[in-house]
Write a structure and sequence with these properties.
Blueprint lengths: L3 H5 L4 H9 L4 H15 L11 E3 L13 H8 L2 E7 L16 E3 L2 E2 H16 L3 E6 L1 H14 L6 H4 E3 L3 E2 L1 E2 L15 E2 L6 H7 L2 H7 L4 E6 L9 H10 L3 E7 L9 E5 L5 E4 L9 H4 L7 E10 H10 L9 E6 L9 E6 L13 E4 L11 H8 L3 E4 L3 E4 L9 E4 L1 H4 L2 H7 L6 E11 L2 E3 L3 E10 L6 E3 L2 E9 L6
Parallel strand pairs: 2-5, 2-10, 5-6, 11-17, 20-21, 21-23, 22-24, 23-25
Antiparallel strand pairs: 1-12, 3-4, 7-9, 8-16, 10-14, 11-14, 12-13, 15-16, 18-19
């Protein structure tokens, strides 16, 4: 049956004019049009379990040493791109999340820039690119200009992500708002491809002899440029490579790799694309074993060819997010935000591959839970530019669960740890409930729960705590 949206046959011309007036590139307009046409055709964006099958097994990423001459050659033809468009608003920040201090006073961006400097000092490459949003551009520019001017001219480093119109959910026309800025939204990190093509950066990279691109999130502190993976990717001739890791209980809601029954191609399925009735198999980590780290490798020439083949934009699956035009006003008009994921491009390339990487290549900072674990001694700074699990620890990252009512924001976490960050090197899990502060040398091992059932902030005194539940309610402090 044809959907009401498909019967309406909305006119794209109003979006075309809006995007052109805003200065959008032809690639950005074409990418948005592909997404909009799917909405107008009545597609739901859902990927049912019946249309896919699990990926049973995948090769492990290589770990072999790469010789100096080979490394120099590869990196002379490689660019490292970090997605740096995110603000840490969910944690109470007003600026780029990548400027959060993580270890020894160093921010995410410090670690990224130091890694690039070290690779260049040793091997002469790679080229460095940051995909910024308009919200992160200014502060990121000032930071790099002040601390890492040797990385090069800002115009060569920065690539700006696009913005797209919100769609009125009732009419499928461009949404309108009293504040014009509210009529626009980010298109998701699948915008990477339109940003590369529309800015001319893709052609410029290829013209300078670059062939390979490593892309990862700026808030994934494990995503360094791995020479063994680069060497293997280059030798394979594959157009696209996704790094995946084995799913754990913590990844049940994250995007997993699967295979389309129709053509056998690898696909990425996000939870927003899963029909409600299929949530149980989606979250079954024994069935769908592999989790997308969003560490991706691309052959730039084959990317250019694929864009040309598809009229200037990759045909990516679309995620339809229904929201209000003013996120602060629940009664404002309903809108649909059209988003794509860059990892979803795996299905756009015949011959795309995936490899399983160790868990320490996926260390994202999405919440204060992640931040506390990474700031603790469970992780160590390697060569001043990368975080890795500390030797002699439990062998896995501690699972931290902080009471969101008290510790969702950065300033609340800072208050919790103002007198000392607890040792988590030998801790499997830490759960904190109620207002408190850690005081002095607190060492946790095994599974720990700390509870303060009162509204009065309590202190947890120095000591060794192992496999126990600690009640603070009766303490007078």
């Amino acid at each position: 049956m044809t959907s009401p949206q498909a019967q309406a046959k909305p006119d794209f011309s109003a979006f075309q004019r809006k995007l052109e007036k805003a200065g959008a590139s032809a690639a950005a307009i074409q990418a948005f049009r592909l997404s909009y046409d799917r909405l107008a055709a009545g597609e739901t964006g859902r990927i049912p379990e019946a249309e896919i099958e699990p990926v049973a097994d995948l090769p492990a990423a290589p770990s072999r040493a790469v010789g100096a001459e080979r490394a120099k050659d590869l990196l002379s033809r490689t660019a490292l791109l970090k997605l740096n468009g995110g603000l840490g608003t969910s944690m109470g920040l007003a600026g780029p999340k990548s400027l959060l201090p993580i270890k020894e006073g160093l921010t995410f961006l410090d670690l990224i820039c130091r890694h690039v400097e070290q690779l260049r000092a040793r091997h002469g490459g790679p080229e460095f690119v940051l995909l910024n949003s308009f919200a992160t551009s200014g502060e990121t520019h000032d930071f790099i200009a002040r601390r890492y001017p040797s990385l090069g001219d800002w115009s060569a480093i920065e690539l700006l992500q696009n913005k797209v119109p919100k769609v009125d959910a009732a009419t499928l026309a461009p949404a309108t708002a009293a504040e014009p800025d509210l009529e626009w939204c980010p298109p998701g990190h699948g915008d990477l491809y339109a940003a590369l093509a529309g800015s001319g950066r893709l052609d410029a990279l290829i013209a300078r002899g670059l062939r390979y691109l490593f892309v990862s999130n700026a808030d994934n502190l494990g995503a360094t440029l791995d020479l063994a993976i680069l060497d293997d990717f280059a030798a394979s001739g594959a157009p696209f490579l996704m790094e995946v890791t084995v799913r754990t209980a913590a990844d049940r809601k994250g995007g997993h790799l699967c295979r389309a029954k129709a053509d056998g191609r690898l696909r990425l399925r996000e939870v927003a694309q899963c029909p409600e009735g299929d949530l149980r198999p989606f979250q079954d980590i024994g069935r769908h074993r592999f989790f997308n780290t969003n560490n991706l490798w691309l052959d730039l020439v084959q990317l250019r060819d694929a864009l040309r083949e598809h009229g200037g934009a990759l045909p990516l699956p679309v995620i339809f997010n229904t929201k209000t035009v003013d996120p602060r006003d629940a009664k404002s008009a309903r809108v649909i935000q059209l988003e794509t994921a860059m990892g979803a491009a795996i299905e756009a390339f015949p011959g795309a591959r995936a490899v399983v990487v160790p868990r320490d290549r996926f260390m994202p900072v999405k919440t204060t839970n992640d931040l506390l674990a990474l700031r603790s001694d469970a992780f160590t700074l390697v060569d001043g530019a990368a975080l890795r699990l500390a030797a002699g620890g439990s062998g896995a990252a501690p699972l931290v669960d902080l009471d969101a009512a008290h510790y969702r924001m950065i300033d609340q976490l800072d208050t919790l740890t103002a007198r000392g960050i607890p040792s988590l090197r030998h801790c499997r899990s830490l759960k904190v409930q109620g207002p408190m502060t850690f005081c002095g040398k607190v060492i946790f091992c095994g599974d720990i729960t700390v509870i303060n059932p009162t509204e009065e902030t309590k202190k947890l005194c120095p000591g060794n705590y192992c496999d126990q539940q600690i009640e603070l309610g009766d303490l007078k402090n």
